[in-house]
């Protein structure tokens, strides 16, 4: 099976490395070629363009920043979709909005390509350790055909429903992620302003059931003020935007998410776009 991987950022580079480790022949492409160096050293082939990669593959994974970039790389001038063989499979693991995945599914159908949206839950370390959770939309038979590939990069893969349903589940998860860390940061910052020591405040908040359990995993970053990106803040803001955009499309109110999205947007204006998303604590903390 000829596998292609397009998008070798924080997540894609690690996911592709796990496919390689599992013994698959893979060919890769990325806008910034240097990010492929390690993979090429370990046996991956390089494709000069998305279109070259499209022509090569039986299965193509994309792991790109956001919908407009996926669209450009799939359908643009040198895009891969027009070159893919009939019956081949395109799996988009980028976090995008469900209506976008539905539209890409239709575009793929026009080329006789089978499409799946398969965003992941889990960040940099789970990507490295092959511990991701794949949330998959698309045809069930197609999902079964490639499930082993997911399991080489993740601990599980769940078929949620038709095309777009993986993306739907993913934006639900990240909406909670963004809100949880923001609510926690607001509470802890006021605690500190009221004279409660940061460590004590964290210890106690994390012991109570009102704090989201995942915040335990981020505690060290906030405690030590270390915000090197595992999950860049600009991507979390993008995900909240995808949630509010979808809510608008469906006529569903999303007041809290709209507010949270703007807080992350303001943090971006303070040069925090490429820091870890947990830097929203720092944004609320700094007085100027
Ligand atoms: P990243 O490190 O910023 O990588 C983004 C990828 O998109 C890179 O391959 C980048 O190419 C490419 N890209 C961006 N703009 C481009 C353009 N104009 N033209 C061509 N390529 C472009 O992001 P990441 O953290 O790996 O995230 C990738 C996706 O996974 C995002 O949708 C994100 O929301 C999602 N995700 C991330 C995490 C996480 O914890 N990091 C977890 C789950 C899901 P270059 O290398 O050339 O910049």
Automatic annotation (TrEMBL):
Report the residue ranges that make up the 3-hydroxyisobutyrate dehydrogenase-like NAD-binding domain in this protein. 164-284
Sorted UniProt keywords: NAD, Oxidoreductase
**Is-annotated flag, keyword NAD?**
yes
- Domain 6-phosphogluconate dehydrogenase NADP-binding: where? 2-161
One matching Pfam family, short form?
Answer: NAD_binding_2
Q: What class of enzyme is it?
A: oxidoreductase
Establish whether keyword NAD is in the entry.
yes
Q: What's one GO MF term for it?
A: oxidoreductase activity
Q: Where is the signal peptide?
A: none
Q: Under which name does UniProt file this protein? A: NAD(P)-dependent oxidoreductase
Q: Which organism is it from?
A: Christiangramia sediminicola
């Amino acid at each position: 099976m000829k596998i292609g991987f397009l998008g070798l950022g924080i997540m894609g580079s690690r996911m592709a490395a796990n496919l390689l480790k599992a013994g698959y022949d893979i060919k890769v492409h990325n806008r910034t070629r240097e990010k492929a160096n390690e993979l090429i050293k370990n046996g991956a082939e390089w494709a000069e363009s998305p279109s070259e990669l499209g022509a090569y593959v039986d299965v193509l994974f994309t792991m790109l920043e956001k919908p407009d970039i996926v669209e450009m790389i799939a359908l643009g001038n040198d895009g891969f979709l027009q070159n893919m063989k009939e019956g081949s499979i395109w799996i988009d693991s980028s976090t995008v909005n469900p209506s976008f995945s539905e539209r890409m599914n239709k575009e793929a159908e026009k080329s006789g390509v089978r499409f799946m949206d398969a965003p992941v839950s889990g960040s940099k370390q789970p990507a490295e350790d092959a511990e991701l959770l794949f949330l998959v939309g698309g045809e069930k038979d197609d999902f079964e055909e490639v499930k082993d590939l997911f399991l080489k990069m993740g601990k599980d893969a769940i078929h949620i429903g038709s095309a777009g349903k993986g993306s739907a589940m993913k934006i639900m998860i990240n909406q909670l992620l963004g809100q949880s860390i923001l609510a926690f940061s607001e509470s802890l910052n006021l605690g500190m302003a009221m004279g409660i020591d940061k460590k004590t405040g964290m210890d106690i908040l994390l012991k109570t059931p009102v704090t989201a359990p995942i915040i335990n995993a981020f505690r060290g970053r906030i405690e030590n003020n270390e915000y090197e990106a595992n999950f860049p803040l600009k991507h979390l803001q993008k995900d909240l935007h995808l949630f509010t955009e979808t809510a608008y499309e469906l006529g569903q109110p999303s007041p809290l998410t709209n507010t949270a999205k703007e807080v992350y947007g303001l943090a971006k204006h303070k040069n925090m776009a490429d820091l870890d998303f947990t830097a929203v604590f720092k944004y609320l903390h700094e007085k100027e």
